[in-house]
Amino acid sequence: MVNRSIALSVIATSLMLLGLTSGGAIAQMSHEEMPSGEHGATEHGDFQRIEQPLWLKGAVTASGLGLIGLELWWFLLSKPKSSQAIAQGGVQEVTVTVDGGYEPSQIVVKAGQLVRLNFDRKDPSSCLEEVRFPDFRIAQDLPLNRTTAIEFTPDKPGRYEFTCGMNMFRGVVEVKNS
Q1: Is 0.70 surpassed by the pTM of this model?
Q2: What pairing do the DSSP bridges indicate for beta strands 91-98 and 86-88?
Q3: Closest residue by Cα to residue 83 from 97, 99, 72, 62
Q4: How far apart are the first and last CA of the chain?
């Protein structure tokens, strides 16, 4: 899957570069050869070709390639931050910072023990006002600049997803056998 995405990105980038470099050779006419109507407009509309300097074309191409590289890194190569819950007094506890997402977004706990996740919300975005754990039937409001504790006891090993109120930001609680 990763190799296929990278291959498609390389093909798309190659086609874009080919289009940029060959754009000057396709259908060029001097201004004297262009048919003109009233006020110098062409028969096909009011658009005229504006020649751009080579350095500007290179800067735009480099910026596009940089953005493609950033996108590939973000979606394919970056790893979610993971944290093992610390058990004290029979309670497994982790603090999750809510700021443009969840950090850590992957939490490892043991089955059969109480889990307390402390959500510390710093982001004023309306999307992050609520956190939902559908598998545990939990939906909890997260007040801004406060820490909200959510407790549950996972009985079975597995991966349990949690999301923001709009289902845009996600995290996972991975439950392992004791």
Answers
A1: no
A2: antiparallel
A3: 97
A4: 33
